[in-house]
Design brief:
The structure is a homodimer of 128-residue chains.
Chain A: H1 3-10, H2 14-22, H3 41-55, H4 60-71, H5 77-127
Helix pairs in contact in A: 4-5
Chain A binds a DNA duplex (30 and 30 nucleotides) through residues 2-4, 13-16, 18-19, 23, 31, 33-37, 60.
DNA sequence: ACTTGACTTGGTGTTAACTCCAGGTGATAT
DNA sequence: ATATCACCTGGAGTTAACACCAAGTCAAGT
């Protein structure tokens, strides 16, 4: 796959794809004889995985480390697992915070709803 | 309340508090005769509210608009409600995305667990 | 009276995460 | 043969969201 196709498929700019590769957020992509990137299936999976994780707010640093560990082979399986567990913990924490904020928003919106109803009644009273 | 107390209470630097006020993320705080900020109860509530919303990822832009609407008085109640509803919608979307990522992480961690178990068995076999 | 220390403002610096750009290369269309 | 085009690299530019700083003010302690 060309970089243009990958860019299109995952809605990331070519610059972003090159940037991710440069900083080690995805493994190095092989080039053809003329030096142009040729993304394999696996490269694509990495791109998709990273995009998903970044989208959920996982820190770039942690993901770079994960990729680096992955490239070091099977001895790092335990470490990688621990890393993911830690990130999961933090993700859950963020989600809990967001849940609280959501409830607060719900309450606020309901309060506004009450206010709106009240105002409408007042207006009616004036009209009558 | 002094800025130092508010800073301490909500774990935001004085610089951040001043910055939030400057860009309109919280309403203007009154100063005493000598020009020093004196936060009222209401100011504090704003600080806490904004911190909570920012923490959940609500965009600064939307919050600035909310504060501005608030300061324009009762005619903006409807608009404010709509704004909150829109932000709630986006918050829910983010949470759903994160939920999917969480499930994916769970699956990945489980897979790693399987792998670890397998590797241990292999090692045992070698030892025997 | 003078120093200290917390605060003020206006402005500059920093960091992360892209994003853009200039100059160059190789394959393809005319 | 040459023009076009997609891509390359290294490096500079951008933006958001603060963080830091210099120079000044004011009240309180000694």
């Amino acid at each position: 796959m060309t970089i243009a196709e990958v860019s299109e498929k995952y809605d990331l700019t070519q610059d972003t794809l090159r940037y991710y590769e440069r900083i080690g957020l995805i493994p190095h992509v092989n080039r053809n004889k003329s030096g142009i990137r040729d993304y394999t299936e696996e490269d694509c999976k990495w791109v998709e995985f990273i995009k998903c994780m970044r989208n959920a707010g996982l820190p770039i640093e942690a993901l770079i480390e994960y990729v680096a560990l992955f490239q070091q082979g099977d001895e790092t399986i335990g470490t990688r697992k621990e890393l993911l567990i830690e990130q999961r913990k933090q993700l859950i924490k963020r989600m809990e915070d967001m849940q609280k904020t959501l409830e607060r928003l719900n309450y606020k919106i309901e309060s506004y709803e009450q206010l709106v109803v009240k105002k409408e009644k007042e207006l009616k009273r004036v009209e009558e």
